[in-house]
Amino acid sequence: MEVVNALGRRKAAVARIFVSEGTGKIVINKRDLEVYFPNPILQYIVKQPLNTLGAAEKYDIKVNLDGGGVKGQAEALRLAIARALVKINPEDKVALRAEGFMTRDAREVERKKPGRPKARRRFQFSKR
User: Rg of the chain's alpha carbons, rounded to an integer?
Assistant: First the structure.
């Protein structure tokens, strides 16, 4: 199997991944998964597509992660892994789609408007 690449995005985070056959090692920005995401919940989020297909020990994944916060990065990586698995085996798309891993979450932060403290919040009204 040659190297398969994929891209995942979530909020401001972008994950570019390269998947090859191996032993299940995930390297993110030249650091191990457990070092980059010490929180076990985020590790679980990243591994969800692999665990769904039972392919956790089949592939080595090299990741370039950029932008956003830790949760957004973990979810961007989850999408990228799901897309790469579908490139490898298109029949897996049905199972991953049913779990919701193939859907790009398009929600972005709304911009701050002028004359307001936040995007929609207004300053407190004072009658006098």
Answer: 18
Within 10 angstroms of residue 61's Cβ, the number of other Cβ atoms is 23
Look at residue 81 in the predicted model and tell me its pLDDT.
Answer: 95
Domains and CATH numbers, the chain: 4-99 (3.30.230.10)
Query: Model's pTM, two decimal places?
Result: 0.91
Nearest to 26 by CA among 55, 1, 53: 55
Helices 40-53 and 70-88 pack at an angle, to 10 degrees, of: 10
Which residues are paired to 60 by β-bridges?
A: 20
- The whole-angstrom separation of Cα 85 and Cα 83 is 5
